[in-house]
Design brief:
Layout (H helix, E strand, L loop, with lengths): L2 H7 L1 H12 L2 H17 L10 H26 L13 H15 L2 H11 L5 H8 L3 H35 L1
Length: 170
């Protein structure tokens, strides 16, 4: 299989991972495009016979981290603007929002393993290689991250239930 064919077969997975990282379809498309351009530019560094998927995901991960650093440098100089107000009317959107907020509260070392595994297309070994950590370290971070995520999400849900029950008693 040629490199071009192999890269093309991973494009859908790259886009899904980019959507999880950026939470914005346009930014995700830009990240995928930038990842593929870098992969083409650095094709001579990929070792034929090795798994291309972790290599591509590592490029995307590193590109995203670099983009975040660049954006942080730019926003440090800009004034703080209020977040736009968006009303969610569907229960699933609310749950998704809660999980995304909870993910944002996790340390990066715990958040990234959860994101890679949540795609369900990466094995633990592939995800560990993508993050360039030993498998045991990856599994430990994943376990701690999942537990922390459960605690945060259940805290958010119980807090909302307490608010609702107070409103009903009034």
């Amino acid at each position: 299989m040629s490199l071009k064919t192999e890269v093309t077969s991973h494009t859908k997975s790259l886009r899904r991972y980019a959507l999880v990282l950026t939470r914005d379809p346009a930014a995700a498309d830009d990240l995928v495009q930038e990842t593929l351009l870098k992969a083409i530019d650095k094709a001579d560094t990929w070792q034929p016979g090795t798994n291309l998927r972790p290599w591509l995901f590592r490029i995307m991960h590193n590109t995203h981290v670099s983009d975040l650093r660049r954006a942080k440098t730019r926003t440090d100089a800009a004034p703080d603007l209020p977040e736009p107000v968006v009303q969610d009317h569907q229960h699933t959107q609310l749950e998704l929002k809660q999980v995304l907020q909870a993910l944002d509260q996790l340390p990066e070392a715990q958040r990234k393993p959860i994101i890679l595994i949540a795609l369900r297309e990466m094995s633990y070994a592939e995800a560990a290689r993508t993050l360039d950590v030993p498998l045991g370290t990856f599994m430990s971070r994943l376990g701690r991250g999942r537990e922390a995520l459960r605690r945060i999400v259940s805290g958010i849900a119980s807090g909302k239930l307490a608010v609702l029950s107070r409103k009903e008693s009034l």
